[in-house]
From TrEMBL:
UniProt record similarity statement: Belongs to the TRAFAC class OBG-HflX-like GTPase superfamily. OBG GTPase family. YchF/OLA1 subfamily.
Species of provenance: Pyronema omphalodes (strain CBS 100304)
Span of the signal peptide: none
Domain TGS: 308-394
Protein residues bound to ATP: N33, V34, G35, K36, S37, S38, M232
Main location per the UniProt record: cytoplasm
Protein name: Obg-like ATPase 1
Location of the OBG-type G domain: 24-285
Pfam family, one: YchF-GTPase_C
Any coiled-coil regions, as ranges: none
Length: 400
């Protein structure tokens, strides 16, 4: 049964920027011709356009890809179910950005609105030279390119703050000065100071109430988690980037400008491996020769994690399924992802942690797990953990 549009309730100890939803999206962002669409195609096995000229991608392409997980594979092999459903990561391929986008250059505000619609960002950075592949600035300088995108995103956020302050002032005129929101004044001032310095908002130090204010009233782009994907030439990637002259400077710049995960990768390598997918022996020989493995699984898992998403499993002979929830979701809301009525009629959850299941549930039976005292009965306050194997008990009378 597919999940309804039930929203999980996040109860994480620290407030998070962004929307409280289970179906969050990562957007692939970068300058034109850095490998964004080619990477998107590889991640999602789609055939989105990926031509060698700027703005090939106009409207954002959207797709989803399964989240690689040995735990899911283990359950599927154990139960041999009639149906199996991975967790999925939704990904959007967004058109290339150029300097001046915040003022309408290139695809301008359309591009930036597409970034606003996603919840996290894969920032693809080109770190290779190839005269046959056009660069929008006619030269390769990854740090300059990252500064360009960072500057445009900060400028866009600054315009959002200015508009937010104007809207707040209009609202106050209607209700009177007594309704002044001091928190908003303080937060908007703090945000403005950071953005004028081209400092991403995620790089600031924020209290929970300030995060909530930004989420509710400003919805800024630079609050989104960022995963930097450094696209290198194939041989550089195979040698783990030790000979790439740009990689150290890229890491240093990221560390000083909002932080974020850094994953060296190579679209050329991934494409060469994909081209051999119909011949496993040839693919194996290629990997052995290169001395490297695909980084696509790591990219997918990192994006999923950066969005604050986890999943629990329901497992049996009929179906093995990973159910996506926000980290910090309590048991009734986790049950509601399966069906809204499950949240209303929630009684308790039978839970076994993944490590206990792997160690004790080898025959697919709960008998040994119960005997070892590892099958727990959890109530409404239980926060579901990543990898939990769960069976929900609900009251049918309350399913209305």
């Amino acid at each position: 049964m597919p999940p309804k549009k039930a929203l999980a309730t996040a109860v994480a100890t620290a407030a998070r920027f962004g929307r409280v939803r289970n179906n969050l999206k990562m957007g692939v962002v970068g300058l034109p011709n850095v490998g964004k669409s080619s990477l998107f195609n590889l991640l999602t096995s789609q055939a989105a356009a990926a031509e060698n000229y700027p703005f090939c991608t106009i409207e954002p392409n959207e797709a989803r890809c399964p989240v690689p997980d040995e735990r899911f594979d283990y359950l599927a092999k154990l139960y041999k179910p009639q149906a199996q459903h991975n967790a999925y990561l939704s990904i959007t391929d967004i058109a290339g950005l150029i300097a001046g986008a915040s003022e309408g250059a290139g695809l301008g505000n359309a591009f930036l609105s597409h970034i606003q619609a996603v919840d996290g960002i894969y920032h693809v950075v080109r770190a290779f030279e190839n005269m046959d592949i056009i660069h929008v600035d006619d030269s390769i300088d990854p740090v300059r390119d990252m500064m360009t995108i960072n500057s445009e995103l900060c400028k866009k956020d600054l315009s959002i703050v200015v508009q937010g302050i104007e809207d707040e002032a209009k609202a106050r005129k209607k209700v009177g000065a007594a309704k002044r929101d001091q928190l908003f004044d303080d937060v908007s001032g703090k945000v403005t100071e950071l953005l004028k310095k081209s400092t991403p908002i995620r790089d600031g130090k924020w209290e929970a109430k300030e995060v909530e204010c930004i989420n509710e009233k400003l919805k800024l782009i630079t609050t989104k988690p960022m995963v930097y994907l450094v696209n290198m030439e194939m041989n550089d990637y195979a040698k783990k980037g030790v000979n790439n002259k740009w990689l150290p400077n890229i890491r240093d710049w990221i560390k000083g400008n909002g932080g974020g995960s850094v994953i060296p990768m190579s679209v050329d390598f991934e494409q060469a491996l994909w081209d051999r997918k119909e011949d496993p022996k040839e693919a194996e020989e290629f990997l052995k020769k290169m001395g490297a493995q695909s980084t696509l699984p790591e990219i997918i898992r990192e994006g999923f994690q950066q969005l604050g998403l986890i999943y629990y499993f329901t497992a049996g002979e009929k179906e093995v399924k990973a159910w996506t929830i926000r980290e910090g979701t309590m048991a009734p809301q986790a049950a509601g992802v399966i069906h809204g009525d499950f949240e209303k009629g929630f009684i308790k959850a039978e839970v076994v942690g993944w490590e206990d299941f792997r160690r004790l549930g080898k025959a697919g039976s709960m008998a040994d797990i119960k005997a070892a005292g590892k099958l727990r009965m959890e109530g409404k306050q239980y926060i579901v953990k990543d990898g939990d194997v769960v069976h929900f008990m609900v009251n049918a009378k309350k399913k209305k």
